[in-house]
Design goal:
Length: 383
């Protein structure tokens, strides 16, 4: 990571931590629509137009602007616009323009398939803080197998090429699944050829919002394979010194904590440690506020009772949540992907141990040590 970007990340982290202590909603996510022109197998949000109508329809332009104005009064600064596919909204340009005028630092999540020359032209005049484009494969065949739509790979590549010629900070994202895992290197190459930052996610939340009766259904890698790609991505995103520091941070915990003794287990685990419901919130396409987009509760309705009362309601409920007591002293906690939302999606509860995450954490520790030793040996050989 470049020094300038590292400094920005440090400042943002410090602001978020301070906001969390004071319960200020500094960062928010507007899930503008559940509609998408792709139909990805692992998606937990997507609904067809008919389903959206049956469920009461989406919020309108004025609804989002009202929410934004009220949230800004309470401290909102960082705003993510996501979906579904946000560019599907007929009023997205107008909404984005008005939100930009409010002074938010805006990030947009998109699949890129609807970003054409006209879109890039107006977007470049008021560029977002960053635009994150998810690339789901490196061929039309693999795109279709995962996203179940034809012709979308070339459309996404065209969008990336158009964005390359602008001052819009664009990042290429990848969600690793069994359908595209073999495209990892090829997708990385697409990003590198365009001098765009690349970020791959190997942990996929079970789609609890899509099917809470059976949240275990998820199109994802085995826990061991997900761990391997986590470490590989960490190595890609850090120089040797940076990775060694990260590895030492992880290994310090697992080296200093003995295997957990059930006889010493506490009755109550720790509260949520992430920023969800403390300095961040999520409002979905129906206007429901939750701490983050992965879980359906606790929930409130800011359009009915006002943003601040809804936020206060969420924060109060989040303070009551306790995570599994067994996770508190786990030796692999620094390698574990299990935030409170992951625990809930994996188990349907906040206080039950998520087996998939446990397996992934232990494997991440193993692969981290292997990479660490490999780099240390390389350095010793060179010296």
């Amino acid at each position: 990571m470049e020094a300038g970007n590292l400094r920005k990340a440090e400042i943002s982290r410090a602001l978020m931590n301070k906001a969390a202590r004071r319960r200020i909603p500094l960062s928010g996510m507007f899930e503008l629509t559940a509609r998408c022109n792709l139909n990805c197998r692992m998606c937990y949000v997507r609904r067809s137009e008919a389903q959206v109508r049956e469920m009461g329809g989406e919020l309108g332009l004025n609804d989002w602007l009202k929410l934004a104005e009220e949230a800004r009064e309470e401290g909102l600064l960082f705003l993510l616009l996501t979906g579904g596919e946000p560019f599907m909204l007929p009023y997205f340009k107008e909404l984005y323009t008005e939100l930009s005028k409010m002074g938010f630092m805006i990030t947009i999540n998109s699949n890129g398939t609807m970003i054409d020359e006209k879109c890039v032209e107006w977007l470049s005049k008021i560029p977002p803080s960053r635009l994150r484009i998810t690339l789901y494969g490196a061929s039309e065949e693999n795109y279709f197998n995962l996203c179940r739509q034809k012709g979308m790979y070339e459309r996404t590549l065209k969008a990336l090429d158009l964005l390359k010629e602008t001052d819009i900070l664009t990042r290429v994202m990848m969600t690793l699944t069994p359908y595209n895992v073999n495209d990892y290197e090829n997708i990385l190459r697409v990003a590198e050829e365009r001098d765009m930052h690349f970020q791959a996610s190997s942990y996929i939340f079970p789609p609890y919002r899509r099917d809470e009766k059976d949240p275990g259904k998820a199109v994802r890698l085995s826990a061991c394979e997900a761990a391997r790609f986590t470490v590989l991505s960490d190595r890609r995103n850090n120089d040797e010194k940076g990775f060694l520091n990260l590895a030492e941070y992880r290994m310090k915990q697992s080296d200093s904590v003995s295997d957990f003794d059930d006889d010493c287990m506490k009755d109550e685990g720790q509260p949520m440690r992430c920023h969800a419901g403390r300095s961040t919130f999520w409002i979905n396409w129906q206007g429901i506020m939750t701490p983050c987009g992965m879980i359906p509760s606790p929930a409130s309705e800011p359009l009915k009772i006002g943003f601040k009362p809804a936020w206060d309601e969420i924060t109060a409920k989040m303070d009551e949540i306790r995570l599994p007591s067994k996770c508190e002293n786990c030796k692999y906690s620094r390698s574990c992907p299990a935030c409170g939302a992951a625990i809930y999606c994996e188990t349907g509860k906040f206080d039950e141990v998520p087996a998939y995450c446990c397996e992934m954490a232990e494997a991440t520790d193993k692969y981290t040590r292997e990479m660490y030793n490999e780099i240390k040996q390389k350095i010793e050989t060179e010296n």
